[in-house]
Amino acid sequence: MTDSGSLGLVQIQTAQLFTADEPLRLVGGATLGPVEVAYETYGTLSAAKDNAVFICHALTGDAHAAGFHEGAKRPGWWDNLIGPGKPLDTDRFFVISANLLGGCQGTTGPASINEATGRAHGLDFPLLDMADFVTVHRALLAHLGIERLLAALGGSLGGMQVLQWALSHPEQVSNAAIVAASSRLTAQNIAFSAVARRAIMDDPDFNDGRYAELGVVPRLGLRTARMMAHITYLSEGAFSEKFGRNPHPERDKPGFGIDFAVESYLDYQGRVFLERFDALSYLYLSRVMDYFDPFSRPGATERIARQPVNFLVMSFDTDWRFSTDHSRRIVKHLANAAQPVTFRDIPSSWGHDSFLLAGQRYHDTLRAWFDRALRDGLR
Amino acid sequence: MTLRPDLNLIAHLVPGSSRVLDLGCGDGSLLHHLISDHDCTGTGVEIDPDLVLTAIMAGIPVMELDLDADLGLFATGSFDTVVLSRTIQTIRQPELVLREMARIGSRLIVSAPNFGLLQHRLMLLRGHMPISRELPYSWYDTPNLRFTTLVDLEDLFAKLGLVIDQRVNLSLTGEPLGKGFRAANLRAGAAVYVLSQQ
After folding, report:
1. How far apart are CA A10 and CA A16, in angstroms?
2. What is the pLDDT of residues A223-239, one digit of tens each?
3. Among the residues of chain A, which ranges form H helices?
4. pLDDT at residue A379, as a whole number
């Protein structure tokens, strides 16, 4: 096995895609143009352009998946996976990671300025669909001069984008890795998102989405949304192992403050989230997940039936946000469409967040699967 | 990769260019052979995590599933051939698994060690659990849960409405025994069956 190294310094880049004259046409009928997309790339595109891997990020992710930004202490969010000698080995693969449409980390979203009005889109921003994310990813690929991907990989909402991409454009995706994702949210999933959105929209500072112009942020709502989401990202066992019933070190006497270590953790997660995420993006992106149900469409698997894609579907046994049943459902539909599907349910004590961690069996599987993809090449 | 003799035999019983589900696929060598040399497509199912990883490295689509519980994942008639090679003795619900196989595919290939082999019977007569090349484990460390003779196994096939289209008897060393071979239940170490639904 090769040594695992870091990518070192990386830089974010921005692409201008679409124009006012040739705008992005959304599934819902609205148009947007131009669209800015923030992205990073790691490794080198081969002369034959046959080693490109696209990373799709989850609900609150961004383009900065690996390496370090200038002056940063922490690397990108998937740095344990992407780098020289790592499972997604940047000595051999060319990795592209982009912030998705509707996001708030450099790609056009509801908080971006609408050039027609000179102010942020706010709630006038059109509703989005999973296929719209893919349309923009594809436009970025065209911008980079890449026709086909060796693979697309994503966890959670990222996996949902990969599934959508493979179903709608199988000719472009030879291999599709879908981790801890869902092809149809349950009522419980939607319920959690509903409470998060309600917390944001009921915040007095939300101002019908016009908070930016007024120089405020619906902090309480966004923080509550994040705290609650974080509960769903970890398993009960993970909370017990991490915090147990440990008191917060600064607790002096019982009250209604931060008495327990777990409360301090959630408070911290909520606060740091405010510095990097936008409340409107939270509304728009979480809503896309609620409506995603690709296999319910007639002819959903027609294209992959004609042009099979190598699928890797993985779940984690303690994930209760998108339990193993969600992944099995995806596997069932893909297997019924005669796709080559590899499926693993990985034992991990950490719940949904496991897809961001470097579990041995998880990373061994990705490494083996990507090595095989590279060996087989583009179809 | 040279194929184990019994897998080589099974490979010849699978029609070329067919869609194969290999239950208990191990490291995927049978499917690898079928995909690269017989133009087949297919998927393996394996429960041992290390073997699953080996199969992934070999480029075989493999699902880490429990045969006793998870075969409902596969749609009715979604495969041409369903293989259960040297696995039936390790599952808790052979009857259910055979039923599921017949639902999923039209051609079933099942191989099983023969507990009724003379050598096994003699060991039992002497008061010991049989140990042989086909049953190489002690009673306390065997992965095998279900022991059957060929005759009893064929009774189960009949009960499930499965017709034996072909049976290949194997010696204890895994060599196919000729067509004129008699008293297989006493003399064959294992057998490979090709089955279809009545």
Report:
1. 20
2. 999 999 999 999 999 99
3. 130-143, 157-168, 187-201, 219-233, 236-242, 261-276, 279-291, 302-306, 324-336, 360-376
4. 76
Domain A13-185+292-376 - what CATH class?
alpha beta
User: How many structural domains comprise chain B?
Assistant: 1
Tell me, yes or no, whether B136 lies in a domain.
no
- Residue position matching structure tokens 């259960």: B84
Query: Which positions 131-190 of B are in contact with A (Cβ < 8 Å)?
Result: none
Note the maximum CA span of chain B: 49
3-state SS class at A192: helix
Angstrom distance (rounded) from CA B27 to CA B57? 9
B117 neighbors B186 (Cβ within 8 angstroms) = yes
The answer to whether A222 and A372 are in contact (CB under 8 A) is no
Question: Does residue B123 lie within any of the structural domains?
Answer: no
Query: Roughly how many angstroms between the first and final C-alpha of chain B, as a whole number?
Result: 37
At the topology level, CATH places domain A189-287 in Rna Polymerase Sigma Factor; Chain: A (1.10.1740)
Domain with CATH 1.10.1740.110 in chain A: 189-287
pLDDT (tens digit, 9 = 90+) per residue, B57-105? Answer: 999 999 999 999 999 999 999 999 999 999 999 999 999 999 999 999 9
What confidence tens digit (pLDDT) does each residue in B44-58 have? 999 999 999 999 999
Residues A311 and B56: beta-carbon distance below 8 Å:
no
What is the residue range of B94's domain? 5-114+144-197
Residue of B19, B41, B64 with shortest CB distance to A343? B64
Catalytic residue of the set A203, A278, A319, A353: A319
Helices B49-57 and A360-376, packing angle to 10 deg = 20
**Residue A352 annotated as catalytic:** yes
Q: For residue B47, is it within any domain?
A: yes
CB A171 within 8 A of CB A147: no
Choosing among B63, B76, B80, which should be mutated to test the A contact, i.e. which has the most A CBs within 10 A?
A: B63
- Name the residue among B38, B109, B49, B59 with its Cα closest to residue B79: B109
Q: What count of residues does chain A have?
A: 379
| Residue ranges matching CATH 3.40.50.1820 in chain A | 13-185+292-376
Structure tokens at A79: 């740095």
Q: What is the complex's ipTM, to 2 decimals? A: 0.93
In a domain, B127, yes or no: no
B62 vs A342, A371, A375: nearest CB? A342
pLDDT in tens, A152-208: 999 999 999 999 999 999 999 999 999 999 999 999 999 999 999 999 999 999 999
Degrees, nearest 5: CA angle B19-B69-A351 = 105
B174 pLDDT above the threshold of 90: no
Find, in chain B, the residue whose alpha carbon is nearest to that of A377.
B59
* CB-count exposure of residue A117 (10 Å: 0-12, 13-18, 19+): exposed
| A156 tagged catalytic | yes
Closest residue by Cα to residue A210 from A313, A333, A77, A121: A121
The DSSP output letter for A273 is: H
CB atoms within 10 A of CB B76: 10
- pLDDT bucket at A2, cuts 50 / 70 / 90: very low
Q: What is the CATH number of the domain that holds B12?
A: 3.40.50.150
